[in-house]
Design a protein that fits this description.
By secondary structure, the chain is mainly α. It has one domain. The chain has helices spanning 10-34, 40-52, 56-73, 80-97, 107-131, 137-149, 153-170, 177-197. Helix 1 (10-34) packs antiparallel against helix 5 (107-131), helix 2 packs across helix 3 (56-73) and helix 6 (137-149) packs across helix 7.
Length: 214
């Protein structure tokens, strides 16, 4: 169920993957504070956090474990990076949310924040995917659905994200034009990140990043 840890390179891999999560948390925060719309999972997490009286970062951690439980029940293979993903991105979100203020009524700045977020998410995804320590919990669920149902990865991802963003929107989450822009541009951004960091993914879990987690 779990990939073996490469202890010889673990310290370097851990620092590298944390730098990716650091940027990932910043990217999500920029989308939230830009108020034009966020990734599908962030829409849901932002909607649920105040209802449960917890921070957005804590909600991200809770959601990660919930999704991980589903992936484990479907016997998806995981790695130490999966747990690191769950435990790290949420706290980095809270760190950046405490620093970066909310921006409204400034479309130019808001658009810049959205585009910068998408660019940073591409870099962050390439960094942590390049470590090859296991897919994030949301990607693990996507892969488990593909494996157990036989549908394509694209279809599995679409089903998950449409469901998540719909529930989040109905609960009052920050879905908007930025959500659509993110969906259209995050793929090219990740591919650009792969080129910059010379990442050569070999498994299906390395082909599609978390929606950002996303």
């Amino acid at each position: 169920m779990f990939k073996p840890i490469r202890w010889k390179t673990f310290p370097r891999d851990f620092l590298r993957i944390q730098s990716g999560f650091f940027l990932f948390g910043l990217a999500i925060t920029l989308m939230i504070r830009g108020n034009l719309g966020t990734s599908a999972w962030a829409v849901l997490e932002v909607a649920l956090a105040p209802r449960l009286h917890i921070s957005i970062g804590t909600m991200t951690v809770v959601m990660g474990f919930m999704v991980l439980s589903g992936a484990l029940l479907m016997r998806e293979k995981l790695g130490w990076g999966t747990l690191a993903n769950i435990l790290s991105i949420g706290p980095w979100e809270d760190f950046w949310l405490a620093i970066i203020p909310s921006v409204k009524d400034n479309l130019l700045l808001q658009s810049g924040m959205l585009l910068l977020a998408i660019f940073l998410m591409g870099l962050a995804s390439a960094i942590y995917i390049g470590v090859d320590a296991g897919a994030g919990p949301r990607d693990s669920m996507m892969l488990a659905i593909k494996r157990t149902t036989g549908i394509s990865i694209r279809a599995a991802r679409a089903i998950i994200e449409v469901t998540v963003v719909t529930i989040g929107w109905l609960l009052g989450g920050p879905a908007g034009i930025g959500t659509l822009v993110f969906a259209l541009l995050v793929g090219p951004s990740v591919q650009f990140g792969f080129k910059i960091f010379n990442v050569h993914p070999h498994g299906p879990e390395a082909l599609i990043p978390l929606a950002p987690e996303d």
